[in-house]
Amino acid sequence: MTGVLILALAGAEPDRLADLLRKSGVEVATEGYGAAIVAVDLSSDIGFEERAMLDRLASEAVPTALVAGGVQRHPDWPEAMARAREELDPERHLAVFAVATDDGGGVEALVAWCMQPDTGPPVRRPDTPTPVVRLDGSARRSSGPPRADRLAGLRAGVAAARTETVTAARESVQALAVAADRACGTLGRRDAAAYTAWLTDSISTVELSAEAELDDRLHQVRRVATIGLTGVDAGQMASEPALRPPPPPLHRTAGGEDAVVLLLGVSAGFGIGRMLVAPIVDGWFLGGLVTAAVGLAISAWIVGVRRTAAVRAALRRWTADTVGLSRTALEHRLVARVGTVEAHVSREIWNRMPSRRV
């Protein structure tokens, strides 16, 4: 076995790859080597650095292998490595390997090749002049922070916007729920329609305010993240339609239960009326009339109180359901809007910014 030379950019993690090979019994050398490894940085496009490495190894006639390093950080590494090989080794002369530098996955096959290289050196390409391309007015060199800093700032900005907006919306809906519960305690049977309309309009106002605030925050984050870039598509800020609240409780009609309550109220009213009227009014006829009138009045009052309590209980249940569903739906729409904008702006930055090579 002879020594192995490792050539790579910093993004391909050559030091960790060298440690894995040494632990597997491979000698990593800078002189007197009989094989070479060119580790490909999957986070950036192929550039002149990799081509210069292969040209050097081609001039030395050293058996060479292309290695995709750090594949654990790149789920799409097969496609990325295929594109890199089309650039570096279109004739398929070199061996190709993939290694996960965190746990050493795939290093066994690379070690076997290092022990006994079975491929030849790379083929040196003839030097050709680089063609000069005239750029139109829309293609300009980007200015401002590098791509990695822009993406990091974008993630931090949208995370802060999401947290603050969702928290503010949750507090507003909770405050509305407290006000609605207090209002239910003073409602009459004829106030149900006005109350349901007020609560529905109030929830719509909270939703529109939260979405407008989030749009302003996201617009500011997007403007900062894309500063200096031209031709950035603003994207669509439309969100999912608002969830329709559950229907308000129906007006309760009289039934058998109300008849029973009415009878109980009449009997209680007659008893109370007799107690009140008997000591005051003489004569059975006049006393009976006054007793009946007092009894009917008391029974009507009892039935009315019961109906009002039933209406308030139904409105409280409807309020709890409406507020809970609206809060959940609003938070879902806000989070979905944040995710859509983050994905769109990230794609715009990625497409319009070159990668910085180390």
Distance between the termini: 32 Å
What's the gyration radius in Å? 39 Å
Task: Let me know the number of strands.
Answer: 4
Rounded average pLDDT: 78
Overall body shape: rod-shaped
Topology order in helix (H) and strand (E) letters: EHEHEHEHHHHH
Approximately how much helix is present in the residues? 55-70%
Oligomerization status of the protein chains: single chain
Unreliable sequence segments: 128-143
Structural class by secondary-structure content:
alpha/beta
Strand numbers in spatial order across the main sheet: 1-2-3-4
**SS summary, helix count:** 8
Strand content: 5-15%
Largest sheet: 4 strands, parallel
Give a written overview of the molecule.
With 358 residues, the protein is of the alpha/beta class. It is 58% helix and 7% strand. The chain has a 4-stranded parallel sheet, with helices on both faces. Helix 5 runs antiparallel to helix 6, helix 6 runs parallel beside helix 8 and helix 7 packs across helix 8. The longest helix is centred in the C-terminal third of the chain and has 69 residues.
What is this structure, in a nutshell?
The protein has 358 residues and is α/β, with parallel strands linked by helices.
